[in-house]
Design brief:
It contains 22 helices and 30 strands. With 765 residues, it is an alpha+beta fold. A six-stranded antiparallel sheet has the order 12-11-16-15-14-13. A five-stranded antiparallel sheet has the order 2-1-5-4-3, sandwiched between helices. Strands 7-6-10-9-8 form a five-stranded antiparallel sheet. Helix 11 packs antiparallel against helix 12, helix 11 crosses helix 18 and helix 18 crosses helix 22. The longest helix is centred in the middle third of the chain and has 45 residues.
Length: 765
């Protein structure tokens, strides 16, 4: 074998660089020594001699390190040579420059007894331009430690793998690819490899025999471009134009592999064995759906064994109409060349197929060729997109509904509070007023649920310990589960705190426990486990990716009837429920999902029919906050002042019933209230410089100018005024606007009489 030169490496190896550094440092030392001899003055000469000695010492250290590394490399090469000697795969050891150090017996037998200097020289007669390929693989191995690539060569296809050993040695192994499909010449189907710009890179023997020789461009083979995969294309052969079904498989480096199935006179020539080599799932059908012929990829996709009789109508569903009618239409020439997405009738998992039908004629009778594609990933992405669109639409609807409902509920509950102040418990009307008040609160909670699963509610996040939260909830949970069900709590002693809205977290846990209770009508045990979890690598679960970090997990496990696999992926959808009418709204789990996701956590469900259900909640753990810091950060709670401070409040609210209630409530606390029904009216009132105002109470969303806009303008002349923003929308809609307004707080609607007065008085104080 004749060598073709040295493989271009990514740079000199370490020992070479050390040798270069040695001679460079020696040269610098000589220059400094010569300078010392020519310098007049003792101090300057001494300095130059000291520098020369230092540089020379560095040169000697570099030389010693180079010698040590070379000795280490020689020892490593001896070990590798002994290790690879009996290897049945052709193996080589090279340095960073591609020079061969060791060649085992299998390599000499395969590539000849000669001893080339580089691996590029070994592969010169086997691969076109081997230096570029080897450089790419070695560069990847230098970065990641290993690299592998399957290469098409004259004798078929070989697999070249390389592993970096030590600092500058590489072990190369060259073997035939194990897959029987790999050798193009062994495939009885015509196969063509197409590169960029439709250049034909290679043709196997079957393709050359079909076409009548080697062609260089795809337009010389296919009469009408572009190629239509899965359909009948006309190709040029030695016998003239011929119809072929073309199957396409993407390869590496922007290459495509085209398989040609002759379809002359409407009959497929290749038999069952030939079709098995085709990488595209292909099925031949009778018009009634009976499978006459299928290749190996199709059987694997459909879950069939070789020779098993089956009908496509029994294997797929979900077209929206009868599968038999669809096949009949295709056999009669209607609806061809249009793909349909169907679902396999497998209860254990969802598998979707994209099916394209082509009509052929066989012995004068119509038949169908079905090209199948696994569309499960595509349907999963589509489902994620639809779910995202659904949640966005519901979120927009919930936001609008919440705003209008919260205004109505504020007026209802507010005026009810005013009436309750004038009625004692013994009054006959007191019970009716309490019913109005309680139902208004229930309506407010329902609006909160709408905002929760659309992730638009206002959360009050705080650092909390799940053990404390569950301890506070234990009494209530035991009352909820009843006498037939036993509730058991198990805690991890090393549990870290989390950051969550305690009230909303309690709602999530109550929802899960109530669902577990309802799943066990005959009684059983519910177990709530808390555990500290350390996730070292990104974790894929369902459609979520959990990033690494410390987490706190909560599992709620029951012994109930379980959830069927077909319904498991729907449990978090809003308004979906398996309960009978009147027993549930279908908002419980969707609300829990929204709260957990808005908190930054994850929620998953596992269930087996007849064996119970387990809900798993994962929350990011946080470091414990010292009690002194929590006390300092916690807002000071002030009850209604017995001697309220006099103050002037400018109340800006476009909803007349809400404005009337709020004005009366504040005046009852001894405050002076100035009312305005719009931002423009408020600015007109404030144009009077003699008017003193202590607090602005304003709605956020109003016709015309919104709350933050008019407040900013008013604060230019009254910079010390406190602000209370009220809104039926979530607080996060105000965050960016409120951030640059000092001394401002947010009060969500619906609010009670005491909520409003206490918030305003805290601002005054």
């Amino acid at each position: 074998m004749t060598d073709t030169g040295v493989l271009p490496g990514s740079g000199p190896c370490l020992t070479t660089r050390l040798d270069q550094r040695f001679w460079w440092l020696v040269a610098v030392a000589l220059v400094l020594a010569g300078t010392a001899l020519g310098v007049e003055g003792g101090r300057a000469a001494l300095w130059c001699l000291t520098a020369a000695a230092t540089v020379l010492a560095l040169a000697l250290l570099s030389r010693l390190r180079s010698l040590w590394l070379r000795r280490k490399d020689r020892a490593l090469h001896r070990v590798l040579s002994d290790f690879l000697a009996a290897d049945s795969v052709a193996s080589f050891v090279s340095d960073a420059d591609g020079a061969l150090v060791t060649v085992n017996a299998a390599a000499k037998q395969r590539f000849g007894p000669g001893r080339p200097e580089t691996l590029a020289g070994v592969l010169r007669d086997t691969i076109a331009n081997p230096a570029a390929l080897l450089y790419r693989l070695q560069d990847q191995a230098a970065a990641t430690g290993t690299a592998t690539e399957d290469v098409v060569c004259r004798s078929g296809r070989m697999r070249i793998s390389v592993r970096r050993i030590g600092h500058a040695s590489y072990v190369w192994r060259i073997g035939e690819q194990d897959d029987p499909v790999a050798t193009r010449e062994a495939i009885p189907l015509a196969m063509v490899t197409v590169g960029r710009h439709n250049t034909i890179l290679s043709m196997n023997e079957a393709a050359r025999a079909l076409v009548g020789g080697r062609v260089k461009a795809l337009d010389q083979l296919v009469t009408s471009l572009p190629v239509r995969p899965g359909e009948i294309n006309e190709i040029s052969t030695r016998a003239g134009p011929m119809s072929c079904v073309v199957a396409e498989r993407a390869s590496h480096d922007a290459r495509r592999e085209l398989f040609l199935l002759p379809n002359d006179t409407g009959e497929i020539v290749p038999g069952q064995g030939s079709l098995d080599y085709l990488p595209v799932p292909l099925v031949k059908l009778e018009p009634d759906g009976t499978i006459q012929l299928s290749n190996r990829p199709a059987r694997r996709l459909l879950g069939l064994s070789e020779g098993e009789a089956a009908r496509l109508t029994d294997l797929v569903e979900g077209l929206g109409r009868s599968i038999a009618d669809w096949l009949t239409d295709a056999a009669e020439g209607r609806g061809l060349n249009r793909s349909e997405v169907l679902r396999l009738s497998k209860p254990e998992k969802d598998v979707f197929l994209q099916v394209m039908l082509n009509r052929i004629s066989e012995n004068g009778q119509p038949a169908l060729i079905a090209v199948l594609t696994d569309a499960t990933e595509l349907k999963t992405l589509e489902a994620q997109f639809v779910q995202s669109q659904k949640m966005q639409a519901i979120g927009q609807l919930a936001g609008g509904v919440a705003h209008d409902f919260n205004n109505l509920l504020t007026a209802i509950s507010g005026h009810c509070d005013l009436l309750l102040l004038r009625h004692d418990r013994d009054d006959p009307d007191y019970g009716d007023l309490m019913q109005i008040n309680q139902n208004a609160n229930r309506a407010a909670a329902l609006v909160g649920q709408l905002l929760a699963f659309s992730r638009k509610q206002t959360l009050r996040l705080e650092v909390t310990d799940l053990r404390d939260t569950l301890a506070d909830l234990t009494h209530l949970l035991n009352r909820l589960v009843g006498e037939k069900v036993t509730l058991k709590l198990r805690h991890d002693p090393e549990l870290k705190p989390i950051r969550a809205d305690k009230r909303q977290l309690e709602q999530v846990l109550m929802n899960l426990v109530v669902n577990a209770r309802d799943a066990m009508p005959e009684g059983g045990e519910i177990v709530i486990d808390t555990e500290a979890r350390d996730i070292a690598e990104p974790l894929q679960r369902d459609r979520a990716t959990i990033p690494p970090g410390d987490y706190v997990s909560v599992t709620v496990t029951d012994q109930g009837m379980g959830i069927p696999a077909a319904k498991l992926h729907k449990v978090f959808e809003p308004f979906y429920t398996t309960k009978r009418t009147g027993e549930g709204t279908g908002l419980g789990l969707s609300t829990a999902y929204g709260i957990v996701k808005q908190t930054g956590g994850f929620i998953f469900v596992d269930s087996q029919p007849g064996h119970g259900t387990c809900f798993t909640l994962l929350f990011p753990a946080v470091d414990a906050v010292p009690d002194t810091v929590r006390m300092q950060d916690a807002p000071t709670e002030r009850g209604p002042s017995s001697t309220p401070r006099d103050g002037v409040v400018l109340l800006v609210e476009d909803e007349a019933p809400v404005r009337a209630f709020a004005a009366r409530a504040l005046r009852m606390r001894g405050l002076t209230v100035i009312e305005a029904d719009s931002a423009e009216a408020a600015l007109d009132l404030l144009s009077d410089a003699g008017m003193a105002v202590d607090v602005f109470v304003t709605d956020v969303v109003m016709p015309g100018m919104d709350g933050p806009s008019w407040v900013r303008r008013a604060l230019e002349d009254r910079p010390g005024t406190r602000v209370v923003f009220v809104s039926g929308y979530a607080e996060d809609a105000l965050d960016s606007a409120q951030a640059d307004i000092p001394h401002s707080v947010f009060l969500p609607k619906p609010f009670s009489l005491s909520d409003l007065t206490e918030t305003v008085q805290r601002q005054l104080h």
